[in-house]
């Protein structure tokens, strides 16, 4: 009977599409994490954390967001913090990547179905070289996180006992590389104590950028010495990311230069360092060195735009992604110039890619608008703070204007769903809920609609 039930379960599992398996996999990890965080051993108070708060924390960690309803540094024990760190690592690299790691260690064969799921998880166009890419993902992650953990541990050894400094170094290296934004300094203060520290700022910014550009780009950069070429994808990601960071730093520097609650109270070097840090962080890390609630409204709205764009495909970050944003800008420029094709770096983009970019952008806008409208009726806060929080949740950023700890139960559930949708991607979630149909066997006659 047991063997028959197992065969039936395996058969049903095999009938699930890759997007559905990804959705169920992430949901299962979130639930397991929530149950572990409700254990008394996870809480510094010795009592069980309320399930809704544990679920929110587990969702935020697994979806590498960083929004918290409980202060991570003071509310959770070493056990609880370690659970959160493991959830961040699994969520950042993807549960299928971690499962592949165990398969490789045990020297088990990666099946065709596993490769299909990995292809969906890594947002790849084909299965070719997918296992080789996963190996590189694991190696790059281990090397970057390990080096950053050593450097941060050495720096923090001057401020705290060595054992604590090592744990802090490991936790924050994992958190920042996976663009999670969780910190364990306590009192919701993130990295504000290190606003003048160039070493901490540079290491954390490097972790955020390296985790956010995507493993495909990272692989291209590593092999550049041999190949002497970059793929179109890498060129678009690197140019767009660099442009957004520079423009973001300039805008924040100008808007906040005289604001005494943020950059206005810092010296000139501190202003530049903080402007760059707050330009990098919305690319979906969530750490901050200045008070986000103290920023001017123009700056806060600008950060909403940066968060919405987010990181790059195949990375640990969220948002609509830099490539989607660039394709949309390219489509607008092509239309204004009267051209049919969108051309980037002398390559013509397929119309299917433009449709996909448009679909992702509109679904993201619809989700953010819907959640923001609902939260504006359930939460006692101004609309910009609600929009900021919702966009931060969708783009898995973690920056907050202080609303998250004050959320109602409905607000917490809504943001959990928003983080979940943002991490998996609205298109993947749509495919999971309603698998895409096959190509139609006929075409309708062309019609004309007046636009503009």
TrEMBL record:
The chain crosses the membrane at residues 21-39, 82-106, 137-158, 202-224, 236-255, 357-377, 383-401, 413-433. Its main location: membrane. The keyword Transport applies. It is found in: Cell membrane. InterPro entries: Aspartic_peptidase_AS, Cat_transpt, TrkH. Keywords: Cell membrane, Ion transport, Membrane, Potassium, Potassium transport, Transmembrane, Transmembrane helix, Transport. It is a multi-pass membrane protein. This is Trk family potassium uptake protein.
């Amino acid at each position: 009977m047991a063997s028959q039930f197992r065969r039936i379960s395996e058969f049903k599992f095999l009938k699930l599409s890759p997007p559905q398996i990804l959705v169920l996999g992430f949901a299962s990890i979130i639930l397991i994490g929530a149950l572990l965080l409700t254990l008394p051993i996870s809480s510094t108070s010795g009592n069980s954390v309320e399930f809704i708060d544990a679920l929110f924390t587990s969702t935020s960690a697994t979806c590498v967001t960083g929004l918290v309803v409980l202060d991570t540094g003071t509310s959770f024990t070493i056990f609880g913090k370690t659970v959160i760190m493991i959830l961040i690592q699994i969520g950042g690299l993807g549960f299928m990547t971690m499962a592949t790691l165990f398969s490789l260690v045990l020297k088990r064969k990666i099946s065709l179905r596993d490769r299909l799921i990995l292809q969906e998880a890594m947002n790849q166009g084909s299965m070719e070289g997918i296992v080789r890419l996963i190996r590189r993902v694991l190696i790059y992650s281990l090397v970057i996180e390990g080096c950053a953990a050593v450097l941060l541990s050495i720096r923090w050894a001057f401020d705290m006992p060595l054992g604590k400094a090592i744990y802090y170094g490991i936790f924050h290296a994992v958190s920042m590389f996976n663009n999670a934004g969780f910190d364990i300094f306590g009192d919701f203060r993130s990295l504000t104590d290190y606003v003048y520290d160039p070493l901490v700022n540079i290491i954390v910014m490097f972790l955020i950028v390296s985790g956010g550009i995507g493993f495909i780009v990272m692989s291209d950069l590593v092999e550049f010495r041999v190949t002497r070429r970059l793929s179109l994808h890498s060129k678009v990601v690197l140019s767009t990311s660099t442009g957004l960071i520079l423009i973001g730093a300039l805008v924040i520097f100008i808007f906040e230069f005289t604001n005494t609650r943020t950059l206005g109270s810092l010296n000139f070097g501190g202003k530049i360092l903080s402007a760059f840090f707050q330009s990098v962080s919305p690319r979906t890390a969530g750490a901050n060195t200045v008070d986000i609630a103290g920023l001017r409204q123009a700056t806060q709205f600008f950060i909403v735009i940066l968060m919405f764009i987010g990181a790059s495909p195949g990375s640990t970050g969220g948002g609509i992604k830099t490539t989607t944003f660039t394709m949309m800008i390219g489509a607008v420029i092509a239309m204004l110039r009267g051209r049919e094709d969108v051309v980037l770096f002398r390559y013509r983009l397929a119309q299917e890619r433009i449709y996909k970019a448009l679909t992702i952008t509109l679904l993201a806008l619809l989700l953010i608008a819907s959640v923001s409208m609902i939260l504006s009726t359930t939460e006692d806060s101004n609309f910009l703070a609600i929009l900021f929080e919702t966009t931060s949740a969708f783009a898995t950023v973690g920056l907050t204007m202080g609303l998250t700890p004050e959320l109602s139960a409905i607000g917490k559930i809504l943001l959990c769903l928003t983080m979940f949708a943002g991490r998996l991607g609205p298109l993947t979630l749509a495919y999971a809920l309603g698998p895409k149909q096959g190509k139609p066997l006929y075409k309708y006659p062309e019609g004309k609609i007046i636009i503009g």
